[in-house]
Amino acid sequence: MRDALLAAMGNAIDEVRKWPQKEVRIFHHNDSDGLTSGAILTTAFKRAGFTVQRSCLEKPYPKLLHKIYDQAGGFIIFADFAGRIAPLLSDLNRSRNLTLILDHHVAEASSDPMVHNLDPDLFGLKGDRDISGSTTCYLFAKTLDASNCDLAHLATIGAVGDEFFVDGCLAGENRKAAREAVNQGKLEIHKHETGERYYLNTLGGPVACDELGAYLDTLGAAGYYQNGPDMGIQVCLEGACPESDEMLIKLQAIQNKAFENEISKIQSEGLKKTANIQWFHVENRFAPMGVKMIGVFCDAIKNSEAVDKHRYVAGFQIIPNEIPGFGPIEFNEVKISMRVSAQIEAEIQAHKKMGLNILLPEATNKLGGFSDACHSLTAATTVAIGKEEQLIEEMEKILSE
Q: Which domains are present in the chain?
């Protein structure tokens, strides 16, 4: 598993070293795992003498991918997403650009030899247990040059931010990266009654990695349309500063107000319910925050009294017709995010209920929507505006079968 992944990374790096252009375009996700992934890759490639152009995306939308692949001779990396859409990237690329995928979600194999899908899921490692996107990028960076081992702490921040633990502790490759950071004096691991907590050693004293992950999540998600991801990368590489703290406070105020208003709306009107699913639609009410916020909100309410513990939770948010750095793009789509209560989580892990990584993409594909990064307990896809209820109905059909 691990050896095969490292061998595939080595083969891809051989192609990178032969590539005539020392320029790379890095696309990464906007949560803490994606931001640390972007920081790791940016550092590694700058050290290797590459000119780096970095873009933060909430999702690798097909309409955007067509723009990205309207070129030849480029070197492109996708980090913390795109594992599932390697066939689509292969069709768009047609062996014209060197493309690397450094994801950790459920993946499909590439059909283009110039598209290297280095998603550990293809090598037997589980992205919701063994390895985060940031740790995948860290393994790649270390394979590129062993001196990049000093980036292990960034992998740990991303892994903790993704909140995939085994008995309260990081496991697999995530744990190995954390131990490396401990040995370098950059990290401390404190045991407690339900597992472990991870602390980054800074000049100002220890900082809990879960708190730093939440800090980055807010910058990248709530601040997606307000230069939050760039500030998040700066925090990853240089630490928090008065400017990032000020941005965080402003974004938290926006988020808190939006969430309070939505909770009040749910308490007064209730959630829409079918046999197995409960859902709601925020439309544009979370603006100016990014669409990752619908998943953050689902997380916030999934175990609340307003939610039926026996039904899957789904929320819809309209996708703005623009992407920072790319200008207007007409989507006319909504994002659906899904989460589960603690009770359903236990049933999914015991294989008594269907995981979201199977349920949601299958239903989305039937409606011609877009699915990429999904885990068994957290998932998100997109469909055309107006198909929200059809999507819920398709999921109910799948569950009834």
A: 2-208 (3.90.1640.30), 271-400 (3.10.310.40)
Sign of the C-alpha dihedral, residues 147, 150, 152, 154? negative
Q: Indicate the length of the chain as a whole number.
A: 401
CA distance 38 to 33: 9
Q: Against a cut of 0.85, is the pTM above it?
A: yes
Give the Cα separation of 368 and 352 in Å (integer): 28
From residue 86, how far is each of 116, 118, 187 by CA, in Å? 8, 10, 35
Q: Which two tokens stand for residue 258?
A: 């939006």
Predicted pLDDT at 372 = 87
Q: Identify any residues that bridge with 384 across adjacent strands, giving them in sequence order.
A: 333
DSSP state for residue 320 in the 8-state scheme: P
pLDDT (tens digit per residue) in 357-377: 999 999 999 999 999 888 899
Task: Pick the closest to residue 43 from 172, 161, 152, 133 (CA basis).
Answer: 152
Q: How far is C-alpha 336 from the geometric centre of its chain's CA atoms?
A: 15
What are 96-136's pLDDT values in tens digits? 999 999 999 999 999 999 999 999 999 999 999 999 999 99
Closest CA to 131 of 95, 101, 92, 105: 105
Query: Which region, left, alpha or beta, applies to residue 124 given φ > 0 means left and ψ of -120 to 50 means alpha?
Result: left
Which residues are registered as beta bridge partners of 207?
200
Enter the tokens of residue 67.
């723009």
Tell me what pLDDT residue 393 has. Answer: 98
323 phi-psi bin (left φ>0, alpha ψ -120 to 50, beta other): beta
Query: In whole angstroms, how far apart are CA 82 and each of 133, 226, 327?
Result: 11, 24, 22
Task: Assign 3-state DSSP to the chain and report helix, strand, coil percentages, each to 5.
Answer: 45, 20, 30
Question: What's at 49, amino acid-wise?
Answer: G
- State the residue for tokens 């939440």: 214
> Which tokens hold the place of 123?
């090598």
Strand stretches in 83-211, DSSP E: 98-102, 115-117, 187-192, 195-202, 205-208
> How far is the CA of 285 from the CAs of 260, 328, 355, in angstroms?
12, 20, 29
